[in-house]
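Comment thread on ticket #2218

A.B. wrote:
> Attaching the input chain for the structure job we discussed in standup.
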Amino acid sequence: MVRQKKAPAARRRPMSREEALARQERQQRRRELEQESRELAKGPIDLPFFILVMLLTGVGLVMLLSASFPSAYYETDGQNPMSYFIRQGVFAIMGVAAMLFIGKINYQRFRGLAKPLLYLAVILLILVIVPGNPLAITRNNATRWLGIPGTSLQFQPSEIAKLAVVIYFADSISKKKDRMQTFRYGIAPYAVLLIVLAALVGIEPHLSGAILIMGAGAVMMLVGGIHWRWVGLAMGAAGLLLYLVLGVIGYNASRIEMWHNPWLDPQGAGYQLRQSLITIGSGGLWGVGLGKSRQKFLYLPEEHNDFIFAIVCEELGLIGATVIMLLFAALILRGFWIALHARDRFGSLMVVGVMTLVGLQTFLNIGVVTGLLPTTGISLPFFSYGGTALSIQLAEMGIVLSVSRQMKPTKAG
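C.D. wrote:
> Ran it. Output below, let me know if you need it in another format.
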C-alpha cells in the first residue's frame, strides 16, 4: 500500500517592514493607553453620584424599617420585629463596601468578566427552571430564586443576568464601531442573546425581569450605533409579543382585568392593587408621619417589598414621595452625565446599561404601585427588601464610580 505524502502546510507570508512597524506602533499605543488608564484610575470618584447613592440607600433602610416591623413582629411571634431591617442593613454594609472596592478598580479589567459572567448567568437561569432542582425556590407560583441548602441565603439569577448583559454588551459593542450598522454584526448576535435570556427569565415566570433585560440591551444597542429602523422594528415586535402573551395566550389575564378595575374582585385578584391605592390616598399631601402607617399592619401585601413605595406615600405624603422620586431622577441623570463624559465607548456603554436598569426598574415599580401599569413582581431599587439584590445594585453603582474616575475634563461654569 503506497502512502500518500501530506501536502506541505501553507506558510505564512513574511511580514513586510511597513506592516511590522505598524504592528509595533499599535502595540506601543496599546501600552500607552493602558498606562494612561492606570494613572487616570487613581482619580477621584464623582462625589454627587456617590452622595445620591448613599442618600437613597439610607432613606431606603429607614423606610424598610418602618414598613417591615409589623410583618417581622408577626412572623417571629414578637421576638424580633427588626429582623428584616437587620438583615437588609448587613447586606447594605456589604454592598457599600463592594461599591467602594469596585469603584477603585480600573474598569478596563471588567472586560475579562464579560464572557465568564454571561456563561454563569445562563447556567444559573437554566438551574432555576430545571424540574425537581432542590436549589430552586418557588414563591407565589413563580420559581425565580436559588438558595444554598442549610442557609438563608437566596438570590435571583436574573439579577446576575442583567449585570452580565451590561458588561458583555459594553465590551462587544465597543469593539465594533461602524459594524453595528449591519444586521449580521450589529443586530443578529445581540438580538438572539437577548431573546434567549429573556425567554429563560420569562419561563420562571418573571415578566418584569425579562423586560429589564430586553430594555437595557436595546438601549445599549441604540447607543452603540444601530440604525433607528431596527429600533422601530424591535419595538413593533415587542409590542406584538406582549399582546400575544397578555391577550391571546392569556398570561396573567386576571392581572390585566384587575388592573383596569381592581374593585371587580376587591377581596381576591384585585385586593393588592386596591389596598395599594388606598394606602397612597391615605397619605394625602404631607403624609400621616414616619412610622405611623396603618396599612402596613398586614392590610397591604408585600408592604416591605414590591409595594414599599405605597408606604412611602402614606407616611411621607405626596411631598415626601415627590422628593424621593426627584432623588431617583437626579441619580439617573447624573449617571447618564457620567456616561457622556466617559473616557471611552466601553465605559460609556457600561454606565448607560447600569443606569437604564435603575431607571427602568424604578419607573416600572412606581407604575405598578400607583396602578399606571399592570401588577407584576418588581422591586424598588435601594428600598425593597432583598439583601442580595441590594448588594448587586450597590456593586453596579461601583462600576459607575469606577468609570467616573477616568472622566474627560469638563469646562468649569
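A.B. wrote:
> Thanks. Noting for the ticket: The two ends are 87 Å apart (CA to CA).
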